[in-house]
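pls design
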């Protein structure tokens, strides 16, 4: 249950303040000094006259905060005209000023929390505290306010934290950005990205990242680290994809016509070139590990097969380099690329 920490009018520790009086001039986004302060030289409506000029910061604290409060307004979400809601995180040092309509529209969960506060008196500012850290809370608000800069993701752990928060508070606007980040991660760490997609129920990302995992030998990967807590059903799907693609890709290679791979060398005797025989022989193991076209159509792999064949046949290299053979290789590569590549 959300807790109504206070409203500006009813809090036991906040003196009555008309929020409108706090809005002029609007605070600079680059500073938190105007967090809940009256404009320079003005007093809040409820402020008692002071016998002498106190430093402005002191008066602000006196007017709007409990004595000794270390609360500051978030520089990214300062108070402003129309902002009638304050969100606080678990490590409460910052206050995030927002408008309840935008927040309610973006998050059904926050809407429920705010509604639970009961009838709102006109002109009051409500304060809602959430369990998230200020860093997560700020990121959530950046998703909620589409015109603000999206949060910078500095680690995979942070990405997961944000996904958890987006799911918990049902902030749909966050999933586009976070999903894109998961796909970015898949370029470098495909298994980890797949695991994250599974853990957070990102169906489309699960599908797309599964394709990236084809580059990885899942049997030799440290699965306990990468995908340790992924449900077995999702790992089973992934293994099925790898196995099925490996056998289909191998079929493409083994059943390919060999007319273009005919070598006139003495060893090959106008039969199938030894270098292609080598490719077929090695493809089984290679494709089982990483069932992608890059595994067997990359120049290094092919050159290695040609070198091995060259020890037996002096003509194999020229067949490999021939236009017809190269064209056939390109056709076969396309055929492997066209195979189903996602769960
Ligand atoms: Zn040959």
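designed seq:
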């Amino acid at each position: 249950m959300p807790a109504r920490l206070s409203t500006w009018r009813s809090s036991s520790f906040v003196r009555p303040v008309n929020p409108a009086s706090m809005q002029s001039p609007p605070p600079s986004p680059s500073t938190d000094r105007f967090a809940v302060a009256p404009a320079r030289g003005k007093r809040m409506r409820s402020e008692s006259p002071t016998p002498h000029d106190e430093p402005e910061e002191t008066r602000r604290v006196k007017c709007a905060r409990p004595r000794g409060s270390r609360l500051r307004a978030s520089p990214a979400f300062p108070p402003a005209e129309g902002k009638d809601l304050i969100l606080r995180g678990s490590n409460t040092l910052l206050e995030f000023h927002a408008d309840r309509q935008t927040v309610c529209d973006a998050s059904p969960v926050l809407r429920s929390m705010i509604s639970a506060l009961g009838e709102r008196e006109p002109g009051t500012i409500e304060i809602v505290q959430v369990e998230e850290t200020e860093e997560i809370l700020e990121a959530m608000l950046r998703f909620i306010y589409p015109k603000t800069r999206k949060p910078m993701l500095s680690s995979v752990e942070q990405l997961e934290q944000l996904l958890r928060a987006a799911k918990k508070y049902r902030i749909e606007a966050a999933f586009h950005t976070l999903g894109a980040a998961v796909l970015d991660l898949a370029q470098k760490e495909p298994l980890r990205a797949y695991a994250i997609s599974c853990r957070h129920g990102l169906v489309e990302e699960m599908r797309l990242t599964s394709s990236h995992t084809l580059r990885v030998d899942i049997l030799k990967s440290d699965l306990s680290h990468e995908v340790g807590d992924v449900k077995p059903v999702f790992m089973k799907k992934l293994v099925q994809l790898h196995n099925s693609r490996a056998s289909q890709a191998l079929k493409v290679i083994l059943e390919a016509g060999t007319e273009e791979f005919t070598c006139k060398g003495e060893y090959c005797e106008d039969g199938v070139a030894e270098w292609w025989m080598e490719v077929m022989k090695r493809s089984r193991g290679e494709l089982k590990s990483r069932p992608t076209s890059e595994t067997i159509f990359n120049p290094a792999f092919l050159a290695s097969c040609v070198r091995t064949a060259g020890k037996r046949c002096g003509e194999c290299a020229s067949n490999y380099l021939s236009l017809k053979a190269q064209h056939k290789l390109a056709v076969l590569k396309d055929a492997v690329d066209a195979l189903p590549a996602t769960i």
